[in-house]
């Protein structure tokens, strides 16, 4: 019996075994994953709809293909239908929009990943939808967001096509439409989040984006969908579109309506024109119109659909082995012979392609698992074994550690370097003496010669790494992983670690023999996981194998490559070796835009002296939280030359206060005063001055003000006219409707509101998190928290209020410093006994003396209430603490309060107006 007949017999035997378990494998291909109907639950499977076999279609018996789904190119009737919706033929072809064979009016939107057909969604012209069952849920247009930083998510496939017509290819559509309402339940875990499983299945694509624009429909379900997406993707990186008005009563519903029926640009107001981008009638609002909410969960974890994690088969071109263009067929023949010796027929295999074959030991085996949660049926069987199946964990991989090989130069057929390779090294400034000392050799493989870097311990050959002229590397299998040049650091207190063998040789040319190279190159990025144990740290096993050498080093210089993988390698080494004894090099500049990459480049282009200088100038490896003034010399120079901006603070806008108090980014100002003394009014006036003079923006967490009342106060100060016909001051001209419209735009541009819309009390962490988002999203320069006693101050039973206030103010100060954002915190004084009308002290603040101890600036606002003591419109601003003498000092200033407009003015300026 020939091998083909044996393979056929094996497959027949395996089919019989699988039939005994109820599993039909006639459509299966050896070596590939196949989706089949579970025999345990097939009775519960709904029967296909006989009307065209489309609406209830189950496509689990074979991979999705154009033929299996009966798809064909769109007819002219459907192309015309899309043209009427402003979708071009080119866009349809690019997105492979098709139709069902034999059905004139059933559109098929093909869902693809890496170009391969994964599923299909159908639509009739009268807007009836259905999808193939048994296919993975994913976003439509997934391949268009493979490597993008900004993603647009729409609600339907036609909206995705419309976005493309508007020039936005970085767009995807959800597969399942929108929910009716927002769920009031907590976010489910990944495997329970059935309705939004497509987000988890596409997690790797979505997590790369820093900005996600939610362009869902303008109706209630569409807005509910946007809310559900934002909850899962993270509100801090989500933006929401504001569909433009269609007429006075309604707005456009979605992207396709905007593209097909663009509004006249004359209907845009100036405020819309500033924030709305127009491209073929498609308009996007640049800022979310909904209040920001802190409760969010970034998409993380893995898909619950088990087959979603399986490797997606790549299309294999049909190539005949006899006509295959192989440069040298001799190695292929030798490989086939080697495979035959262990029982593997390689005649059916193609070079460079994966092939599915039967294992010669089993002569055929299968394993299965049912993805239906309530079923859980799984098992394995072999073609030539007893009928009983064995049960095991499906994803468990058992690795057998191979014994370490003993190798010699003779067994590896190594030989001295030829003159051509010596000349190659000489061109890279590596001398023949250095090559001989490091036992650099060569190995012949056919007509080619490879450089052999011999890895030795105590002079004995342990491993060998090869490199050809084109920089292709490979190593001897089953040899111990150690540093290259290990014997050179046997008694060294200073050790240099480089990324490649050539760099090790270059270091020796510069006079540094105490250098080793890692054997396996650099990782693409730093791992975000905790350090593994010695047994599990396979990538860096060479560190553990050379531990007795490394532990003697008191100073380790990491001279890895300057590219991102090289810097990732330095970080991984420092994590394991101890940052406290690590130093790092700074490679010199090659030109204005880039630096030299590694030691050998510096040696070649700048010489050994320059490389020696790089090592001698190595800097301490940074440790989080530990710095040197040298790290801040640039900032100190900018401070001295006043190039940072705001070094001496920003003027409050009142001359009387200029010598006492100026506003510095990153500081905390505590404002207090007895009730009804005008603390909040004064802060609002200060914000208006800062906005008018230097253009600052602010986040307002004002819990005592209704939004409309706070808007009135700010508008009166900004426009300098009363909001109403005056009831609270002298008669004056009320602001006009035009003033109001301009003022509303100013409010929208200058302020972000932090408000808790439910009955819960906000805590300081909630406020600071939203303030952080406001800094990133809107670029705010200042935060107002007014007042302290409106926050939720739950604390552990063993923590005093003084300890709590200290901890809270520390958080506020860290936020201010980290985001260069000035914070004004309003705190009421405790009940004052025997008060005689004077301004309170900062130590009178209710709660703790830490309010004055920990703040940068302390201000008391006091208003005269006694007509005999002076004018009632005079306000006393008492500066009671200024930590930084550069920006002010302790003292009192007096301002005049205009009750009509809420403005504060210098007294001399107020007298001139009067």
TrEMBL record:
GO terms for molecular function: 5'-3' DNA helicase activity; ATP binding; single-stranded DNA binding. Residues 57-66 have a biased composition (Polar residues). InterPro entries: DNA_helicase_DnaB-like_C, P-loop_NTPase, TOPRIM_DnaG/twinkle, TOPRIM_dom, Twinkle-like. Residues 47-67 are annotated as: Disordered. SUPFAM superfamilies: DNA primase core, P-loop containing nucleoside triphosphate hydrolases. Residues 493-598 form the Toprim domain. Residues 643-911 form the SF4 helicase domain. One of its GO terms (biological process) is DNA replication. SMART domains: TOPRIM (SM00493). Pfam families: DnaB_C (PF03796), Toprim_4 (PF13662). PANTHER family: T7-LIKE MITOCHONDRIAL DNA HELICASE, TWINKLE MTDNA HELICASE. This is Twinkleprotein, chloroplastic/mitochondrial-like. It comes from Dorcoceras hygrometricum.
């Amino acid at each position: 019996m020939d091998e083909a007949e044996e393979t056929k017999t094996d497959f027949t035997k395996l089919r019989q075994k699988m039939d005994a378990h109820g599993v039909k494998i006639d459509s299966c291909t050896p070596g590939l994953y196949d989706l089949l109907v579970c025999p345990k639950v097939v009775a519960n499977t709904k029967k296909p709809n006989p009307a065209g076999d489309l609406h209830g279609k189950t496509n689990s018996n074979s991979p999705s293909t154009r033929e299996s789904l009966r798809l064909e190119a769109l007819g002219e009737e459907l192309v015309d239908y899309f043209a009427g919706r402003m979708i071009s033929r080119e866009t349809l072809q690019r997105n492979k929009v098709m139709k069902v064979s034999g059905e004139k009016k059933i559109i098929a939107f093909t869902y693809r990943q890496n170009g391969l057909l994964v599923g299909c969604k159908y639509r009739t012209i009268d807007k009836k939808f259905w999808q193939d069952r048994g296919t993975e849920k994913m976003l439509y247009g997934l391949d268009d967001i493979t490597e993008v930083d900004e993603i647009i998510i729409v609600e339907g496939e036609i909206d995705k096509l419309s976005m493309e017509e508007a020039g936005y290819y970085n767009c995807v559509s959800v597969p399942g439409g929108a929910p009716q309402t927002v769920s009031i339940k907590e976010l489910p875990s990944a495997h329970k989040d059935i309705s939004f499983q497509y987000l988890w299945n596409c997690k790797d694509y979505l997590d790369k984006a820093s900005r996600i624009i939610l362009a869902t429909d303008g109706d209630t379900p569409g807005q509910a969908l946007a809310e559900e997406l934002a909850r899962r993707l993270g509100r801090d990186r989500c933006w929401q579109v504001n569909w433009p008005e269609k007429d006075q009563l309604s707005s456009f519903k979605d992207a396709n309506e905007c593209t097909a029926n663009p509004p006249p640009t004359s209907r845009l107001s100036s405020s819309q024109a500033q924030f709305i981008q127009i491209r073929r009638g498609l308009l996007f609002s640049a800022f979310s119109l909904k209040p920001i909410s802190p409760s969010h969960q970034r998409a993380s974890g893995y898909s619950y659909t088990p087959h979603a994690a399986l490797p997606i088969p790549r299309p294999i071109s049909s190539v005949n082995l006899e006509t295959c263009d192989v440069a040298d067929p001799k190695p292929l023949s030798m490989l086939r012979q080697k495979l035959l010796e262990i029982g593997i027929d390689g005649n059916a295999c193609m070079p460079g392609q994966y092939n599915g074959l039967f294992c010669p030991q089993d002569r055929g085996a299968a394993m299965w698992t049912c993805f239906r949660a309530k079923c859980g049926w799984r098992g394995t069987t072999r073609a030539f074994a007893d009928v009983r199946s064995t049960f095991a964990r499906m994803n468990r991989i058992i690795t057998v550690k191979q014994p370490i090989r003993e190798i010699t130069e003779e067994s590896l057929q190594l030989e001295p370097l030829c003159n051509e390779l010596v000349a190659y090294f000489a061109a890279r400034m590596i001398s023949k003496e250095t090559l001989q000392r490091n036992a650099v050799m060569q190995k012949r493989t056919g007509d080619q010669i490879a450089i052999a870097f011999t890895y030795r311990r105590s002079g004995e050959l342990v491993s060998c790494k090869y490199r050809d002229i084109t920089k292709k590397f490979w190593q001897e299998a089953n040899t111990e992983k150690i540093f290259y040049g290990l014997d050179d650091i046997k008694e060294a207190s200073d050790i240099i670690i480089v990324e490649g063998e050539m760099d090790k040789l270059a270091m020796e040319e510069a006079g540094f023999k105490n250098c080793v190279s890692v054997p396996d190159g650099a990782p693409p990025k730093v791992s975000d996981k905790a350090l593994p144990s010695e047994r599990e740290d396979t990538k860096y096993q060479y560190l553990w194998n050379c531990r007795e050498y490394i532990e003697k080093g008191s100073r380790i210089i990491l001279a890895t490559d300057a590219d991102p993988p090289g810097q990732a390698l330095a970080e991984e080494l420092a994590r394991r070796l101890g940052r406290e004894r690590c130093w790092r090099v700074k490679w010199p500049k090659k030109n204005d835009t880039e630096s030299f990459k590694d030691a050998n480049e510096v040696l070649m282009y700048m010489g050994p002296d320059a490389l020696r200088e790089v090592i001698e100038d190595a800097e301490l490896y940074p440790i989080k939280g530990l710095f040197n003034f040298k790290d801040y010399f640039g900032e100190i120079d900018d401070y001295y030359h006043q190039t940072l901006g705001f070094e001496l603070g920003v003027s409050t806008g009142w001359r009387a206060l200029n010598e006492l108090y100026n506003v510095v980014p990153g500081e905390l100002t505590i404002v207090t005063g007895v009730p009804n003394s005008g603390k909040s009014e004064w802060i609002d006036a200060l914000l208006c001055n800062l906005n008018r003079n230097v253009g600052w923006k602010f986040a307002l967490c004002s819990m005592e003000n209704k939004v409309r009342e706070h808007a009135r106060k700010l508008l009166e100060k900004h426009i300098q006219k009363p909001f109403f016909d005056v009831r609270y001051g002298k008669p004056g001209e009320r602001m006009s409707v035009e003033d109001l419209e301009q003022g509303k735009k100013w409010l929208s541009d200058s302020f972000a509101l932090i408000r808790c819309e439910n009955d819960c009390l906000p805590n300081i962490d909630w406020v600071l998190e939203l303030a952080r988002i406001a800094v990133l999203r809107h670029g705010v320069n200042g935060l107002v928290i007014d007042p302290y006693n409106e926050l939720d101050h739950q604390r552990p039973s063993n923590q005093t209020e003084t300890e709590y206030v200290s901890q809270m103010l520390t958080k506020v100060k860290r936020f201010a410093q980290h985001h260069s954002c000035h914070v004004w915190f309003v705190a009421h004084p405790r009940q004052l006994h025997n008060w005689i009308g004077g301004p309170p002290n900062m130590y009178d603040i209710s709660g703790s003396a830490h309010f004055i101890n920990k703040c940068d600036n302390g201000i008391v606002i006091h208003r005269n209430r006694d007509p005999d003591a002076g004018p009632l419109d005079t306000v006393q601003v008492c500066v009671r603490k200024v930590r930084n003498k550069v920006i002010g000092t302790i003292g009192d200033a007096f301002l005049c309060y205009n009750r009509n407009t809420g403005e504060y003015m210098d007294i001399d300026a107020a007298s001139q107006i009067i």
